[in-house]
Amino acid sequence: MNNVAVIDYGMGNLHSVSKAMESLGDDVRVEITSDASRILAADRIIFPGVGAIRDCMAEIRRLGVDAIVSQALAASKPVLAICVGMQALMESSEENGHVECLGLLPGTVKRFGGETGNGVLLDVDGKRLKVPHMGWNQVQQRQAHPLWQGIEDNSRFYFVHSYFVAPTDASLCAATTDYGHTFASALSKGSLFAVQFHPEKSQHSGLQLLRNFLAWDGRA
Amino acid sequence: MALAKRIIPCLDCDKGRVVKGVKFEDIRDAGDPVEISRRYSDAGADEITFLDITASSEGRETTVQTVEAIAGQVFIPLTVGGGIRTLEDIRTMLNAGADKVSINTAAVVNPEFVREAAARFGSQCIVVAVDAKKVSEAGEPDRWEIFTHGGRKPTGLDAIEWVKRMVSYGAGEILLTSMDRDGTKIGFDLALNRAVSDAVDVPVIASGGVGELQHLVDGVLEGGADAVLAASIFHFGEYTIPQAKQYMAEHGIEMRL
């Protein structure tokens, strides 16, 4: 059995990711839970997230999810963070004014168009881009990593977000994507892999990434 | 490298069955939304929109089960619309596996509902669907009004002001249907699309009037749409999704091929 725990802290739809994992094999058992002992007993962990960061962080702290993720990483257990789950790992986020995050990865979370002062995001031709960044965009692999196995470079994945992570350590960047400017769409550190896109909604490429995660021993 | 424009087939369902029928080769059950969704996903659809037109509450139960079944087998984004009136309706659909819900009449009846929904579930899953009709006379500047009840009931709301308000309340995307064009197959109302797309920062899905592939291209290039929604041209097998994507790509539009 390949036991996967999806951390449940009351934010958003966890069924998509759990169903996508279950579709990958009869030996995959997925549990959606906030119970620390259940999560730490699993072979691998998914740290999802959707919605506003302040509410996410409040629930993460209330349920002790911060300690669970730290313990799992200390034990080199494979952890896949998705979307706001990825953002929660950074030091802080510009969303909702300013929100302190877990600080497990160095860097901050910024808003698309935040640099211009008027919130407008422009492409290279000076055309205004829509925010949220919603839809299928290309993911350029920046590292050889077991989670990219069988996925062509520049494959498209499904994104939906208004904020992006800006890591201060460029060596953590596992992939980048262009939207107005280049941003980190995947980060990797030890047994942690974090993605801004939704693999559970990214059809073949997304399922392949989840398949790779199921086979991953946590070593880069 | 750029974000791709999206093609979204729309399934109208009554009590868990696709109405209008779908013509695919070798399909076992032309009314089964799960099989049809899977076919569209395999063909390269970028999202699926499931529009529930079921009137009865028992029927709604079936809808939830259908959404669960689709979400268990189709791993692309799924939007569910039709009869979304309360925060509980939204929670039910998201828990069943929908990624977004589309709110139409309930937003007109109570605009604050959109604000509450976005605050509770996040803008990323709140689509506001607007049905607009041109009300300006010839020679006047273009003006469109929001209608409900399938285009029969005027609301007095100016379409452009309305979409701006909905976005300021937290709508993450606008599904824009021209009631003048819906079912006509003569193409989108491009002036309406352009006016709405320029008025808001969030993505706009163009809907209503697609009869040929050039209409999809026009919707993006002239109407400024971020996504195009169509039902009958795909359902009745006039065009396939790969044909549509290829055609759009050949006209310089970034697509996921």
Please give the count of helices of chain B: 10
Residue share in helix of chain B = 25-40%
**Helix/strand/pairing category of chain A:** alpha/beta
User: How much beta of chain A, percentage-wise?
Assistant: 25-35%
By CATH, the superfamily of chain A comes out as Class I glutamine amidotransferase (GATase) domain
Top-tier CATH class of chain A: Alpha Beta
If strands are numbered along the chain, what order do they take across the biggest sheet of chain A?
A: 2-1-3-4-15-14-13-10-11
Q: Which CATH architecture of chain B is right?
A: Alpha-Beta Barrel
| Number of DSSP-assigned strands of chain A | 15
DSSP summary, beta strand count of chain B = 11
How would you sum up the major sheet of chain A?
A: 9 strands, mixed
Order of helices and strands of chain A: EHEHEHHEHEEEEEEEEEEEH
Encode the helix/strand succession of chain B as letters. Answer: EEHEHEHEHHEEEHEHEHEHH
Note the beta-strand portion of chain B. Answer: 15-25%
Mind explaining what this structure looks like?
The complex is a heterodimer of chains A (220) and B (257). The model of chain A has no long low-confidence stretch (mean pLDDT 94). Chain A is of the alpha/beta class and 220 residues long. Helix content of chain A is 24%, strand content 34%. Chain A has one domain (2-215): 3-Layer(aba) Sandwich (Rossmann fold), CATH 3.40.50. In chain A, the strands form three sheets. A nine-stranded mixed sheet of chain A has the order 2-1-3-4-15-14-13-10-11, sandwiched between helices. In chain A, strands 6-5-7-12 form a four-stranded mixed sheet. In chain A, a hairpin with a 5-residue loop joins strand 8 and strand 9. Chain A contains six helices and 15 strands. In chain B, helix 8 (213-221) packs across helix 10. The two termini of chain B are 13 Å apart. Chain B has one domain (6-250): TIM Barrel, CATH 3.20.20. The model of chain B has no long low-confidence stretch (mean pLDDT 92). Helices cover 37% and strands 23% of the residues of chain B. The radius of gyration of chain B is 17 Å and the shape is globular. In chain B, strand 4, helix 3 (87-96) and strand 5 form a beta-alpha-beta unit.
